[in-house]
């Protein structure tokens, strides 16, 4: 197919997807995300942008995912994925915003032409895109808009159908950097290659250790339900019963249920089990989010206290296991952990003092964590909310996969490391891959959740939202832990924090919601709540709080 850009064709197609005048779109931390009915023109244009990006990168395949993750079912969103499976490069986020906001069809053409000229894009280059969607009812209509965009810019598009976000990331990477698949539809291949890879790696990582008790998985009534079911079947086809998952909240066809009173975000924020799950002390459970790229684990202890094993706990488990294997193997590989300011203070202290591993703190948003993690041979990164993965550098992969002349013990450790490099989805945080590697570590250690949890005790913490007139006036530094503006506010926060044992609090504008977030922790829940609501009250009173002062603010 000749793939030159036909601007008249784009203009004609664009007329069917006029921009909604009153809306100002921003490609934020998680791409474009809002009520689904506002997104058609945006997604049409994202199809065009994907074509331009592919042409710019010498015909490499670009991924596009239509999802709004843990948001309510009525929302939707879209994000682009670069050829290696990473998030879209930052400069192009700006182009995405410009394209989405072009008012008329002529403006749109002008923006496209400026992107072409700024980037020296060869318009005649071949280009291709693969795209997928989650289970939201608005998905098919938005896919149709995307396909119109892809057609308008005359590039090849491959529809993967319903997939988890990490599957789309992995398949995009696969098409660009692995053997080209010989036959079969992309929709089927994107499942098969994924299941095959992770099922085999899981068996390698588990070895012949005895398996654990069943784990209940709350799939948030999202795409994780069918995908995990198939993945588990694939795993148990190789060796029956090695992974026993009981999937709940698996109804992907029922209106309004997606992420409703269930899912990783609900459990993490509310510190309680999802709808449909009453836990006994023996039960192990985990929750995915709506597009299956986050996971948190939990159980109730012998006092019937709910215990959450969040992203910080996953990072500690993974780092501890990998460090031990690296030591035993005798390989010269460094390990580092990357967190954000939301990581619990106890987890930070445990990593630095007990595991003696370097810990970096970066601004919120997976792309910052991912990039920082690339600086280590093995970079473990997790947001407290359960989104994260482990990256092995080319240097580390080379050492792990070509180590020779070792003792039996070293050999065993190296084999485990090799298995982990395959078991972990290194393109992006992946709830299903994370589930498998957590289970593999626990199986190797023969640990209960309680043993995993005992590494350190979380400091009580509280996250509060404050609605303000203009969140753009909040400027931070020091990986978002210190406010620079509004001037003088940080000093006042510091004075409050100083009144509490183990007190810590910081304030930052959200990148995904029109609110300012206040985080606080302290040695008791009572102190921590008091600190959080005092800081929230301070922000409300001194920095343009609006919509009524919530009664709990102090
Ligand atoms: C405190 C918190 O959980 N923040 C979330 C949230 O970002 P905010 O910028 O805080 O709105 O959404 C991001 C995208 O999903 C996620 O990466 C991040 O961890
Ligand atoms: Mg998600």
TrEMBL record:
PROSITE patterns: PGM_PMM (PS00710). Transmembrane segments: none annotated. Its EC number is 5.4.2.3. Substrate binds at residues 383-385, 508-512, 517. Residues 463-536 form the Alpha-D-phosphohexomutase C-terminal domain. It catalyses: N-acetyl-alpha-D-glucosamine 1-phosphate = N-acetyl-D-glucosamine 6-phosphate. GO terms for biological process: carbohydrate metabolic process; cell wall organization; UDP-N-acetylglucosamine biosynthetic process. Pfam families: AMG1_II (PF21405), AMG1_III (PF21404), PGM_PMM_I (PF02878), PGM_PMM_IV (PF00408). It comes from the Eukaryota. This is Phosphoacetylglucosamine mutase. The lineage of its organism: Eukaryota, Fungi, Fungi incertae sedis, Mucoromycota, Glomeromycotina.
């Amino acid at each position: 197919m000749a793939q030159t850009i036909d601007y008249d064709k784009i203009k004609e197609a664009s007329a069917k997807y006029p921009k909604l005048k009153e809306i100002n779109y921003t490609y934020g931390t998680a791409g474009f995300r809002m009520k689904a009915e506002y997104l058609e023109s945006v997604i049409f244009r994202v199809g065009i942008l994907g074509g331009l990006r592919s042409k710019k990168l010498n015909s490499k395949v670009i991924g596009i995912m239509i999802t709004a993750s843990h948001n309510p079912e009525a929302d939707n969103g879209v994000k682009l994925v670069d050829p290696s499976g990473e998030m879209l490069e930052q400069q192009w986020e700006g182009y995405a915003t410009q394209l989405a906001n072009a008012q008329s069809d002529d403006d749109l053409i002008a923006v496209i032409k400026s992107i072409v000229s700024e980037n020296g894009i060869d318009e005649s280059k071949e280009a291709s895109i693969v795209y997928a969607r989650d289970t939201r009812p608005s998905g098919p209509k938005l896919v149709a808009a995307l396909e119109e965009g892809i057609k308008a810019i005359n590039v090849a598009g491959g529809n993967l159908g319903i997939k988890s976000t990490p599957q789309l990331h992995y398949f995009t990477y696969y098409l660009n950097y692995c053997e080209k698949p010989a036959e079969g539809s992309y929709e089927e291949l994107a499942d098969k290659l994924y299941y095959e890879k992770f099922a085999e790696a899981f068996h390698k990582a588990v070895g012949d250790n005895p398996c654990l008790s069943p784990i209940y998985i709350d799939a948030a009534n999202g795409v994780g339900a069918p995908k995990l079911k198939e993945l588990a079947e694939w795993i148990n086809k190789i060796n029956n019963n090695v992974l026993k998952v009981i999937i709940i909240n698996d109804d992907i066809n029922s209106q309004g249920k997606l992420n409703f009173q269930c899912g990783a975000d609900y459990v993490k924020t509310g510190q309680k089990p999802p709808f449909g799950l009453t836990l006994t002390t023996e039960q192990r459970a985990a929750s995915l989010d709506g597009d299956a790229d986050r996971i948190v684990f939990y159980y109730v202890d012998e006092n019937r206290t709910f215990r959450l094993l969040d992203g910080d706990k996953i990072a500690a488990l993974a780092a501890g296991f990998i460090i031990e294997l690296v030591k035993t193997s005798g390989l010269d590989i460094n390990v580092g952990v990357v967190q954000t300011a939301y990581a619990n203070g106890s987890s930070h202290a445990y990593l630095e003092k007990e595991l003696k591993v370097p810990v970096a703190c970066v601004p919120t948003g997976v792309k910052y964590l991912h990039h920082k993690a690339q600086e280590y041979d093995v970079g473990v990164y997790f947001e407290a909310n359960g989104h994260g993965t482990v990256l092995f550098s080319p240097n580390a992969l080379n050492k792990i996969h070509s180590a020779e002349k070792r003792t039996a013990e070293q050999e065993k450790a190296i084999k485990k490391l090799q298995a982990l490099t395959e078991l972990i989805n290194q393109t992006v945080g992946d709830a299903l891959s994370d589930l498998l590697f957590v289970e593999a570590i626990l199986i190797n250690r023969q640990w209960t959740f309680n043993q995993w949890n005992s590494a350190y005790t979380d400091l009580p913490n509280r996250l509060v939202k404050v609605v303000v007139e203009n969140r753009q006036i909040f400027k931070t530094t020091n990986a978002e832990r210190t406010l620079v503006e509004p001037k003088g506010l940080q000093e006042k926060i510091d004075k409050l924090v100083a009144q509490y044992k183990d007190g810590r609090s910081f304030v930052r504008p959200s990148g995904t919601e029109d609110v300012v977030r206040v985080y606080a922790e302290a040695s008791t829940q009572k102190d921590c709540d008091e600190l959080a609501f005092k800081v929230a009250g301070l922000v409300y009173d001194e920095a343009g709080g609006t919509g009524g002062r919530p009664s709990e603010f102090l």
